[in-house]
Amino acid sequence: MSIRPVIISTWPFGLAANEAAAAALASGGNCLDAVEKGINVAEDDPEVTSVGFGGLPNAQGIVEVDAAVMYGPTHGAGSVAGVRGLKNPISLARKVMQHSRHVMLVGEGAREFALRHGFPFTEMLTEPARAKWIQWLLKTYPLPPGKTHDTIGMVALDASGDLAVGCSTSGYAWKEPGRVGDSPLIGSGLYVDNEVGGAAATGLGESILKYCLSFLVVEGMRQGLSPQTACEAALRRMKSREAEYPDAWAGLVALNKAGEYGAACCGHSDFPYALHRGGKNEVLTYSPRPE
Amino acid sequence: MSIRPVIISTWPFGLAANEAAAAALASGGNCLDAVEKGINVAEDDPEVTSVGFGGLPNAQGIVEVDAAVMYGPTHGAGSVAGVRGLKNPISLARKVMQHSRHVMLVGEGAREFALRHGFPFTEMLTEPARAKWIQWLLKTYPLPPGKTHDTIGMVALDASGDLAVGCSTSGYAWKEPGRVGDSPLIGSGLYVDNEVGGAAATGLGESILKYCLSFLVVEGMRQGLSPQTACEAALRRMKSREAEYPDAWAGLVALNKAGEYGAACCGHSDFPYALHRGGKNEVLTYSPRPE
Predict the structure, then answer these.
(1) What is the C-alpha to C-alpha distance for residues A200 and A152, in angstroms, rounded to an integer?
(2) Which domains does chain B carry?
(3) CA of B248: how far to CAs of A119, B146, B242, B243, in Å?
(4) Interface contact flag, A101 B176, Cβ < 8 Å
(5) Number of A:B CB contacts under 8 A?
(6) Do B176 and A113 touch (CB under 8 A)?
(7) Would you call A186 an interface residue with chain B, using a CB distance cutoff of 8 Å?
(8) Whole-model pTM?
C-alpha cells in the first residue's frame, strides 16, 4: 500500500522546510529524514530569527537552542535543550534518540554529547541579532507581541503511512539563560502516535506546556476527532484557563494517519502554516472565528 | 466547607515526607507548602540515594538534580533540571513558578537563578555515594534493576479542597551528564488540574515521558475514572508499547478532588507508597495482578 505523503509545518518559513522534507522523501528517505532535513532549512536560515542560526539570543546575548523529534514506528523520542553554539539541534535530538540510552539531554551535557558525536560548533549570534539585542538592552527595541517565539514544528506522513514530528527553536527572545519552553518537551511541543497521528505547537511555551497541547491533540484524534477539531478543542482548554495572561497564545498543526490535516491558533490574530500535499506546497492561514 | 486533607507519596520514604507535609498543613500552610516541605525531607535525607543530598551521581561523579511543582488554584508550574550543587530543587522549582516569567530553567541558567535568589550551594556527593560511584566505575557495583531512579512524587489535597503536586529526583544513577527524565516535565512526572485531581510518577523516565503518564491519569479522572482505574489505564498504554524494553517500569500515585486515591505500577514486582489520610500515615503496597 502506498500512501500519499503529507507534510505540515508552522509559519510561512515552513514552506522552504516542507520543500526540503519532500525532497528527502523523494530521494528515498522516510518521515524521520523528512522532518530532520526539513527543519534543518529553517535552522540554517539566518533570516529566521526564532530558530537556529540567526535566532534572537537570551538576555545575556547568547543563543540557546532547543529541539525534539519523535518517530512513530518505534515510538522513539530525542530532545535537547539549552544548547549553545549549535546550529542544528533537530539533528542532535535525532542523534540522542538513536545513539543514547536517554531521551533528553540539556545544557553542558547535551553539548558534550554533541562534541563526542562530531557536531560542529559555531557562533550563533548574527550581526543583525546582536544589533537587536543591543537595542533591547537599551530599551529601544520593543518586539511586537507574538513575534518573539515562532518555533518551527513539522509533522510528516510518508508513503509507508508512518509519521514523524519535530520542533526546533531558539526560544523566547531575551529569555533568562536556561529557559526551556514547550518545543523540546514530548507531549507539549510535539507528539506522535503512529496508530493515530501527530501534532506540533508554536507560541508561548510557558502556557503550552501547562496543557500538554500536542499530546492533547493526539488524544483527541484517538477519540475520533478530526485533526482540525482536535486542535480547536485543545486550544479551547488552554484559552479558558489562560485568559489572565495577555501574552498567552498558541498555534497548532496536526496530521492524522489518513493524511487529513488541521491547524488552529488562539490568542493570536491569525496563523499561517505551510502544507505540502498532492505535489502542491502552499501557505494557508487559519483565522480564529469571532466569538 | 472544610475538606479532610489527603497526602500521597511514592515509596516508603514518602512516609516521613507525608509527615512533614501534614505538619505544614496543620500549621496553616496550603497544599503547595505541604508539597514543598514534605519533599524537602526526602531531599535532605542522605539515606535516600535517589533524591537530593546523597543522591547517586551521574557518570562523571556529579550529582545533578531535577524537580517540578504545580499548584492547582493558579494552574502555575515551576521546573528545574540538571542543577548541580543544590540540595532542595523543589524549593527552586517553586521559586521559578512564583518569581520568574518562565516555567522551566535548566543547567547553568537554573543555577544562576538560584544564586540570585539566595539558595545555598553545597557539595552533593556524600562519601557513600562516591564509594558506590567508584565501584560502578570499576564495574563492581551492579545496581539491581529498578533501584536506580526512585523519584519522590507527592500529591496533596488541603482543607480548602485545593491540590498541588511535586516531584524531585537526582535522576538515573550514572546517567549521562545533562540527562533529564520525566520528573521535571509537566504532564509526565507530575500534573494537576484543580477541578479534577493530580498525579505523580516514578520509574524509568525515558519511558514515562513518552506517554505523558501523569497528564494521562488526570485526563482519565476528568473522564470519570477513579484514581485507581486511571492509574492502571495509563500504565496499560505504556506497557503495551514498551514491552521490548526490559527496564521500562513506572509507578503512579493519584488523588482526585474528592480525596479518593489510587496507586499502581507496571514492569516492577510491587510498588510501596505512603498515604496520609484521616490522621493516619502508613505505607501501602500495590501489587500488580498476575495476568
Answers:
(1) 9
(2) 6-286 (3.60.20.30)
(3) 30, 9, 6, 8
(4) yes
(5) 140
(6) yes
(7) yes
(8) 0.96
One DSSP character per residue, A60-79 reads TS--EEEEEEEEGGGTEEEE
Lowest mean pLDDT among A205-209, A224-228, B12-16, B243-247: B243-247
Residue B60's closest chain A neighbor by CA? Answer: A109
Return the pLDDT at A1. Answer: 57
Q: Taking a C-beta distance cutoff of 8 angstroms, is the pair B286, B254 a contact?
A: no
Neighbours of B137 (CB within 10 A): 12
| Exposure string for B184-195, b = 16+ CB within 10 A, e = fewer | bbbbbbbbbbbe
Partner A, chain B 224-243, Cβ-Cβ below 8 Å = 241
Choice among B10, B49, B126, B151 that is catalytic: B151
**Going by C-beta distance under 8 Å and a sequence separation of 6 or more, which residues neighbour residue A57?**
A63, A64, A124, A125, A129, A130, A133, A170, A173, A174
Q: How far is CA B129 from CA B87, B142, B151, B174, B179, in A?
A: 15, 14, 17, 11, 19
Tens of pLDDT, residue by residue over A180-220, are: 999 999 999 999 999 999 999 999 999 999 999 999 999 99
Residues sharing a CB contact under 8 Å with residue B245, sequence separation 6 or more, in sequence order: B204, B207
Can you count the helices (H) and strands (E) in chain B? Answer: 8, 13
Nearest to B82 among A106, A186, A210 (CB): A106
Place of cell 529569555: A175
User: Of these residues, A151, A169, A202, A285, which one is catalytic?
Assistant: A151
pLDDT of residue B267: 86
Cell numbers 515562532 correspond to A150
Q: Which residues of A247-278 are buried (b: 16+ CB within 10 A; e: fewer)?
A: bbbbbbbbbbbebebbbbbbbbeebbbbbbbe
Closest partner residue to B219 (CB to CB) among A104, A179, A219 is A219
Return the pLDDT at B145.
47
Q: Is A47 left (phi over 0), alpha (psi -120 to 50) or beta?
A: alpha
Provide the edge-to-edge strand list for the sheet that holds B6-10. A179-180, B104-106, B76-84, B64-71, B163-169, B152-157, B6-10, B271-277, B280-286
Angle, helices A31-44/A14-26, rounded to nearest 10 degrees? 140
d(CA B237, CA A190) in angstroms, rounded, equals: 19
Nearest to A102 among B112, B113, B176 (CB): B176
Mean pLDDT of B218-227: 98
Cβ neighbours, 10 Å, residue B251: 29
A284 phi and psi, to 5 degrees? -115, 160
CA end-to-end distance (rounded Å), chain B:
43
ipTM for the predicted complex: 0.96
Q: Indicate the helix (H) or strand (E) that contains B65.
A: strand B64-71
Question: How far is Cα A101 from Cα A119, in angstroms, rounded to an integer?
Answer: 19
Whether A151 sits among the annotated catalytic residues: the reply is yes
